[in-house]
Design a protein that fits this description.
The chain is of the alpha+beta class and 165 residues long. The chain has helices at residues 136-151, 158-163; strands spanning 12-19, 24-29, 38-44, 70-77, 80-84, 89-93, 100-102, 108-112, 119-126.
Length: 165
C-alpha cells in the first residue's frame, strides 16, 4: 500500500450521496491500485451542527468488528476519529498521519470530528476474495437505510442492519 497514490483523482462509480442534513457526502470510487472491495470518499461538512455529535452522529456505527476484512482510513483534509481496541482508545487522524488500518477482529467505530473546514476521508475494506465482503452495495444499503431513519426521526433496527451483511 505504501506505493499507492491516495491523492490521485479517482473515477466516481456511485454517488455522490448527500446524507444527514447535508453533513456528509459519500462517493464510491473506482479502485485500481488497492486490494479492496470498496473505496469511499467522504466529505464531512465543516461547521455543520450535526458533526458536533461526534460518536452520536448517525454515520457512526455502534462498536463492531469485521471477521474477514480489515478497514483502512486515510484523512486527506481535516480530521476523523476512530475508537479502536478492547480498551476503546480514541484516535484522531489527520492528513499528516499514515493510513490507519483496523485489522480483522478488532472492535472499532469511526466518527466525525468537528472542524470549521471540510474533512475529506478515504476508507476502504480489504482484501478482496472473501466470502461476504464489505462492498459498494453493502454500504449503499446501510447508508441509505440509516439516512432514511434519520429523515423519519426513527431509530435504525439493529437486527435489520446486521442481516444486511
Amino acid at each position: 500500500m505504501s506505493n499507492v497514490d491516495l491523492q490521485k483523482t479517482q473515477k466516481v462509480i456511485a454517488g455522490p450521496y448527500t446524507l444527514f442534513d447535508g453533513s456528509i457526502k459519500a462517493e464510491y470510487l473506482q479502485d485500481d491500485d488497492l486490494d479492496a472491495t470498496f473505496l469511499i470518499r467522504m466529505t464531512i461538512t465543516g461547521g455543520h451542527a450535526l458533526i458536533d455529535k461526534r460518536k452520536s452522529h448517525p454515520i457512526s456505527p455502534p462498536l463492531h468488528l469485521h471477521f474477514d476484512q480489515a478497514e483502512t482510513f486515510k484523512v486527506l483534509q481535516g480530521k476523523w476519529g476512530v475508537t479502536a481496541g478492547y480498551e476503546q482508545r480514541d484516535i484522531i487522524l489527520m492528513p499528516e498521519d499514515e493510513a490507519f488500518t483496523i485489522p480483522t477482529w478488532l472492535p472499532h467505530t469511526p466518527w466525525p470530528v468537528p472542524t470549521e473546514e471540510d474533512s475529506i476521508i478515504l476508507a476502504w475494506g480489504h482484501p478482496k476474495g472473501v466470502l461476504k465482503p464489505m462492498d459498494v452495495p453493502f454500504f449503499e444499503q446501510i447508508f441509505l437505510y440509516i439516512g432514511e431513519c434519520f429523515e423519519e426521526k426513527k431509530n435504525p433496527d439493529l437486527l435489520q442492519m446486521m442481516l444486511s451483511q
